[in-house]
Every structure is written in structure tokens, then in C-alpha cells.
Amino acid sequence: MSVSTASTKNNGTLDNSFENIAKDIIRYQLSEKQLLVGLGSGRAVTKIVKLLPDEVAENCEFICTSLQIKIEAENKNLKIIDESQIPLIDIVIDGADQIDDRFHLIKGGGGALLREKILYFSAKKRIIVADYTKFVSSFSRSVPIEILPFCRTAVIPFLQKIGGTPVLRTLDKGYPYVTENGNLILDVMFNDYSDILGIERELKKIPGIMETGLFIPAPDLCYCALNDNQFKKHETNVSSK
Fold first, then answer.
1. Are residues 23 and 109 in the same domain?
2. Which residues span the domain enclosing 186?
3. CATH code: domain of residue 85
4. For 153-164, how does the pLDDT look when each residue is reduced to its tens digit (9 = 90+)?
5. Choice among 19, 72, 116, 211 that is catalytic
6. Is 116 a residue of the active site?
7. Which of 99, 29, 110 lies closest to 65 in space, CA to CA?
8. Can you provide one Gene Ontology molecular function annotated for this UniProt record (predicted)?
9. Do the domain assignments include residue 122?
């Protein structure tokens, strides 16, 4: 793994750090012609869309994982194409809710984990952006799990059996949160995160679970936004395919 650090002379805020990361990605990752780019979610992805120069945008096509980022892309007049081209994605850019010391990810806080995982696994190159508070030695938050509404109660004993404590995600008024795929999300806290591969393997055995928020293959490139305009860039040296 290699690490580099960069900064600018703007006011020292985390928001400026994300802006600097967006500029770095545009300059060094999106400069090639005829790229197909998968857009995930998060502050940095939104900034990339807003800061993308016309001359770069003209050479790229985009697939979006959520309506929120699709609206941002439409406002920028980016060339959005349909899902049939997902196997051809060159680069996916996304955020993360937590990143452990092996660069495993927990994603899905925004509810788009199923679509994000499809793009993540399909892309030739994976880029993740998060602020420094998301980098931890070991996971310490719940794992979002997208489930069919039909199995809302059926999966609970199976999750408890493997050490999970599931909580149905709800909106402010108490209504269940429904994903863009028409599914529900359980946020599941586990007693022990020492065997991430084992947890993922057991979750995939449970009927009704559509996808988990555990992203096991490390990204190829991981940006860490710092508070002082700076950011760290981790190249994990892990093949994306």
C-alpha cells in the first residue's frame, strides 16, 4: 500500500478537503477519453459532478446508483446511460460509512447499497472517498442489510443466531424506510467483527436477504479527507477483478 498527501491554501475545513479530493480525481482519474463512470453517493461524488469541466464531461458517460445523484448529474447535463452497460464500467467512485484497517467497507447508510455493490463489483477500478472519522481499526457500527419486505420477521432469528442485533430502519415519523428497489433495510449490529468474510458468508445463506453492506474486496484507491484542506490517498495495490 502506498500513501500520498496533498493540500491547497484554502480555509482549513473538511468541506474544502472534499473539494480538493474531487479536483484530484477529476485531474488524475477522469482525464482519459471515453470513460464509463459509475457514480455512487456521498459528498465527494456530488462535488465531482458539480466541478466536472465540460471538456471532461464530454468524454465520459455515467451510470448512477441513486435518484439523488442522478438528479445532480442531470442538472449538470451529463450523459447518463442505462444499466445494460454496467459490465463495461471503467471506474466507480463512491463513499463509505466505515473503512477498517484492511480496507474492508461498510456501506449503505444512504440506502443504495444493492445498486452500489453491483457497480462496485462490475468496475475495473474502484475509488472510495471518506473523511478521517470513517477510518477505524475494526468495525464499530451496524451493517445495513437490504431484505425483501415479505421476510421482515423471518430473517430476524437467523441474524440473531449469528450474533446480530437487527433494527428495522425507519423514517422520522416511524414509517419503514423503503429503498429505490422497493425493499426494506435492517441495520444489524454484530457482537464480533473479527471475521468479516465469515459474517458475509453466513448472511448470504439467509433466504430473503437481497444484499449486505459489507464490501469485502478492497478499493483500488481510497481517499481520506482531513480537517486542514489536506487529504491522504491510499493505493491498496489490490486488483479490482
1. yes
2. 143-213
3. 3.40.50.1360
4. 999 999 999 999
5. 116
6. yes
7. 110
8. ribose-5-phosphate isomerase activity
9. yes
